[in-house]
């Protein structure tokens, strides 16, 4: 629209960081930040909504569930500081999508190339389980964030709940797009939704999701997104 300055990701992140819409999540993220885990006692937890991270020109979106209480709720960067991130970032590096195999903290110089990471819910939920109302509340942030990533071609959903949230975002009926590891769904807007099991410790330690399986998913995501 003439005369209207388009929103920028930085502005979105600033506004997001102040979000207190979900009472239960605000209480939990702050309680975890006060009580801390023994190993992180000396640290100041982020304890706020976690912004997305990555390449603003990304063709590939990696879509998680919600921040880990002592992971990104502590560090302030998606998938950083917990077992999920210790699995995800090395895989992104092997795929040539990350400049380094480790994500330490915001400001560590890590860059993603062609990829961007965010999640369906941006505050750590108790028991890693957001409620339906919390998914719904956070979907407004998803809409704004994805609108600022115009080059996206492929969504990689980590787990069924992330898959469902992306379908909701597009107003699509779940029954027509069943979740399955490795499944590819052509969306009406021309993008592709690709599914993977979540990179959680629960999946990676039990062998449900191996590094080789995830490397294969990332290779397919890159091919669909026409990323070199
Ligand atoms: O940081 C994050 C974000 C989404 N899901 C996770 O497991 N961790």
TrEMBL record:
Pfam families named in the record: UDG
InterPro entries registered for this protein in UniProt: UDG_Type-4/5, UdgB-like, Uracil-DNA_glycosylase-like, Uracil-DNA_glycosylase-like_sf
UniProt key word Transmembrane helix: no
GO biological process: base-excision repair
GO molecular function: 4 iron, 4 sulfur cluster binding; DNA-deoxyinosine glycosylase activity; metal ion binding; uracil DNA N-glycosylase activity
Keyword DNA damage: yes
Annotated keywords: 4Fe-4S, DNA damage, DNA repair, Hydrolase, Iron, Iron-sulfur, Metal-binding
Domain Uracil-DNA glycosylase-like: 51-218
Family, similarity comment: Belongs to the uracil-DNA glycosylase (UDG) superfamily. Type 5 (UDGb) family.
Name by which UniProt lists this protein: Type-5 uracil-DNA glycosylase
Organism from which the protein derives: Oceanithermus profundus (strain DSM 14977 / NBRC 100410 / VKM B-2274 / 506)
């Amino acid at each position: 629209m003439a005369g209207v300055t388009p929103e920028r990701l930085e502005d979105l992140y600033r506004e997001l960081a102040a979000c207190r819409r979900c009472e239960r999540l605000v209480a939990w993220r702050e309680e975890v930040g006060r009580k801390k885990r023994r190993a992180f006692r000396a640290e100041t937890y982020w304890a706020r909504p976690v912004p997305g991270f990555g390449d603003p020109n990304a063709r590939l979106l990696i879509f998680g569930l919600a921040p880990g209480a002592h992971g990104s709720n502590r560090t302030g960067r998606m998938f950083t500081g917990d077992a999920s991130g210790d699995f995800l970032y090395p895989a992104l590096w092997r795929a040539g999508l990350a400049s380094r195999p480790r994500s330490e903290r915001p400001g560590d110089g890590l860059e993603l190339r062609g990829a961007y990471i965010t999640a369906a819910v941006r505050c750590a939920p108790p028991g890693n389980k957001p409620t339906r109302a919390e998914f719904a509340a956070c979907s407004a942030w998803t809409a704004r964030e994805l609108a600022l990533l115009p080059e996206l071609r492929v969504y990689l959903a980590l787990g069924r709940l992330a898959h469902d949230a992306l379908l909701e975002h597009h107003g699509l009926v779940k029954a027509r797009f069943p979740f399955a590891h490795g499944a590819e769904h052509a969306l009406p807007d021309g993008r592709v939704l690709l599914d993977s099991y979540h990179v959680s410790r629960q999946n990676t330690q039990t062998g449900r999701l191996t590094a080789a399986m995830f490397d294969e998913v990332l290779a397919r995501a890159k091919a669909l997104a026409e990323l070199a």
